[in-house]
Amino acid sequence: MDKQKANGLEIAAWVGWDWADKQHEVAIQQEESAKVERQTVAQQPERLREWVEGMRARFGGAKIAIAIEQTRGPVIYALMSYDFIVLYPINPKSLARFREALRPSRAKDDPADAELLLELITKHHDRFRPWMPDDQRVREMRTLVEYRRTTVNEQGRYAKRLKSVLKSYFPQALEFAGDLTEEIAWDFLTHWPTLEAVKEAGEAAIREFYLNHRCRRKTIDERVNQISEATPLTSDTAVVAASVMLVQITINQLRCFAEAIEKFEKRICELYADYPDRDLFDSFPGAGPVLAPRLAVAWGMERSRYQSADEVLRFSGVAPVTEASGKSKWVHRSYARPKFLHQTFVEYAKQSVVQSTWAKAYYADRKRLNHSRNDILRSLAFKWIRIMYRCWRDRVPYDESSYLTSLQRRGSYLAQLACEVRLTEVCTESPD
User: Which of 84, 91, 152 is nearest to 121 (CA)?
Assistant: First the structure.
């Protein structure tokens, strides 16, 4: 079958995709065919994957062009991971005007909108810019950082379960063992799953345990005293025996999660080691070994993907959504967004508060005005995305001093706030 070339790509089939809360309406037209095929895909990850794999098999892995509204971030994020799919994100205003031109009544119907998207892309694809997938290395790294985060979340969930069990029969362990996501806590509870067991171990064994885990001597003295003075919460052997079993099982699961996280991090580090833009993403204050690779795959290496910072802000859901009806107008956060991408930018904003002078100043100023923590971090992420876009587009690493100079030159209030923070830090560090 001859395939039409669009933006230098051979396309075997064109697809118009209209998103909805419960199901997606899809219109498909094979190249060299006037017939339009209509399908419905349920709004479930499993059904979406089935549809994609079916299209891959049907067209032998040839390129398939999909036109979809640009605001439908989660669906775009799911589809863009497939290398044979060429995405054409359509601005909602473009679709609305096209619909109005063909239907003066402005009536909106999902199946018909899918056909409108199909018609728009088949007849005017030269006017739209395709969303090109990144190379295999970037896609692998993107998948790995997401899997790592999912595993960390699971580890946290099991740590909460462990905490809940300990509270029911051995609450002192929350102090004696420390952070339940750390190896020292698992080793402590493996050695001494009950208060009776740790008391029978003796002071020498307890001190040796803490020394082997590099605890401070002052902390060790405090723990030894606490253990000697502690009294059991319950003496019900049935409760204690069952709880100890669950504790040991949960610890084994936590160790498995830790091993998986270590493997993910090792592979991510290998891929990120020779990443072309590594210096750029390492330059952002607070990024570190975890968030720098996440930021790298969030932006990707294809510079033609975004033409402005506003596109990234809308796609990630960091930009607020404004709705208006009659004389009413309200602004709220975006609910239709790629969750992990949004999370990456917000979590980076949180870390930047520790390392960036102006970010720290901005956070403190908004807290003074009684803004909520989440609102501040989203607002800070908004600012960081604009900065990152400029660095990413120009391939220039971020420089804090240059940005502060720019703020001063523009007369930004952040420049004054940053100076006050710097002055406070200098006075705090002064020996006087």
Answer: 91
